[in-house]
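Meet the record:
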Amino acid sequence: MFRTIIILLALLPLSIGAAAAEHIQKNQFASVFLKDDKIGYVHLTTVHNEKGEIEELRANASVSFLGMQVYGFDQNLKETWASSELQKMSGKTDDNGTPHEISLSRNAEDYQASYNGKDLILPLNAFPTSPWHYAITQNTLLFNIVDFELLNVKIARAEETLKINDKDIKTEKFTFTGDWEAKLWFDENKEFVKGEYDVSGRQVTVVLD
């Protein structure tokens, strides 16, 4: 179940061509909290095209739960997109010593995927549990970005004003129920602001710095 945090910490590919003049690269950081304690971070790198669409995205995440023992979680994920459609994905995750390695490529009929060396096929209408994309809020069939498990969800929307760093931010709040339990907040520009996830019975929060 801990691997579910992957969702929360998710992914991004990076690849900049010679024609970078029409593309904008952005580096951001997000903090991961367990209650009021900061337990990790996510480093995000995104490349947008001239239309503002994400073309590449990379997420490097590191989390440690401290208590009777230390629970470590490290993840490096990449995504490549074109015309708002996922084209490729690859990544490695160390979930407290348990390795997870994934790769995926899109063809005309489906996604050809591999998880720890095992070949899989995923439907094109499934969306990755990558919280950085506003489009996740429009998809009720998701797949786990740790092991490619398919997840059926229901989504409820509401408007909410958050106070972050002493600033009031108007957001859309999306509550996911079903095979994936999560809450995501996006601002008026449809950019990720905050996420909440239940991980191994513990409520984890990710906030964009």
The chain has one domain: 2-208. The helical segments are 5-9. Residues 4-8, 10-21 have pLDDT under 50 and may be disordered.
